[in-house]
């Protein structure tokens, strides 16, 4: 397994990308964060399509619409709501505390990770991305690889596909595409393959 980083993109830059995407998935950015987020995307290490750049800029220019989109996607009750919890996808009964959530909790304890979110279950996509960002900053390739292969990538492509397919917000569609690109870059960089798991959602 190689540990080389593509020319021009450092592990620290990948970590910064993941932090930005993690937080916009957890909550709609407040007014004080909009300028910083706009600056982030201007300096994005990976090429963005004109449509992605426009969707991001339009989203940040309409914070009220962004808040509504976030609520519709992740918080409004109903079967169409996108779940941000991994075990909802990997558990046959769509339980938030399924086996993969328990495995994630064991993994975070081994990493001495203190959860940053108050959530119904520990395996929220934002929590997983934040730990991945921290491990990247530490240069802990072994733990990054385990996190990607065993905990995040078995289910998050299904979440990303759902986020990209929804028609509520072009901003979140762009976020889905950007997240997918970052994660695939990391997987390719280290020649990783996700652990095969059946998905039920």
How would you describe the overall organization of this protein?
The chain has 201 residues and is mainly alpha-helical. Helix 2 runs antiparallel to helix 3 (50-60) and helix 7 packs antiparallel against helix 8 (141-152). Mean pLDDT is 91; it is low at 1-6. The radius of gyration is 16 Å and the shape is globular. 62% of the residues lie in helices and 0% in strands. The chain has helices at residues 11-26, 31-42, 50-60, 63-74, 86-90, 99-110, 125-138, 141-152, 156-165, 170-189.
Question: How are the secondary structure elements laid out?
Answer:
Layout: H1 11-26, H2 31-42, H3 50-60, H4 63-74, H5 86-90, H6 99-110, H7 125-138, H8 141-152, H9 156-165, H10 170-189
Helix pairs in contact: 1-7, 1-10, 2-3, 3-10, 7-8, 9-10
Continuous helix count: 10
Structural class: mainly alpha
Give the SSE order as H and E letters. HHHHHHHHHH
Largest sheet: none
Quaternary structure state of the chains depicted: single chain
The total of beta strands comes to 0
What's the Cα radius of gyration?
Answer: 16 Å
Q: Please report the distance between the alpha carbons of the first and last residues.
A: 32 Å
Which percent band covers the strand fraction?
Answer: under 5%
Proportion in helices: 55-70%
Enumerate the spans where pLDDT stays under 50 for 5 or more consecutive residues: 1-6
Question: In one word, what is the shape?
Answer: globular
Give a summary of the structure in a few sentences.
The chain has about 200 residues and is mainly α. It is about 60% helix and about 0% strand.
Q: Which properties best describe this structure?
A:
mainly alpha, disordered N terminus
């Amino acid at each position: 397994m190689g540990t080389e980083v593509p020319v021009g993109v450092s592990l620290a830059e990948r970590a910064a990308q993941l932090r930005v995407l993690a937080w916009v998935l957890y909550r709609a950015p407040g007014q004080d964060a909009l300028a910083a987020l706009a600056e982030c995307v201007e300096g994005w290490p990976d090429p963005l399509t004109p449509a992605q750049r426009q969707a991001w800029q339009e989203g940040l220019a309409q914070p009220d619409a962004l808040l509504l989109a976030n609520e519709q996607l992740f918080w409004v009750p109903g079967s169409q709501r996108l779940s941000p919890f991994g075990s909802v996808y990997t558990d046959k009964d769509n339980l938030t505390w399924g086996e993969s959530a328990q495995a994630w909790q064991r993994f975070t304890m081994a990493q001495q990770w203190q959860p940053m979110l108050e959530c119904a279950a520990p395996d929220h996509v934002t929590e997983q991305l934040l730990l991945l960002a921290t491990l990247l900053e530490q240069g802990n390739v072994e733990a990054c690889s385990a996190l990607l292969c065993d905990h995040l990538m078995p289910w998050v492509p299904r979440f990303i596909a759902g986020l990209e397919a929804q028609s509520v917000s072009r901003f979140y569609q762009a976020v889905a595409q950007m997240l997918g690109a970052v994660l695939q870059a990391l997987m390719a960089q280290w020649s990783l393959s996700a652990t095969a798991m059946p998905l039920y959602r």
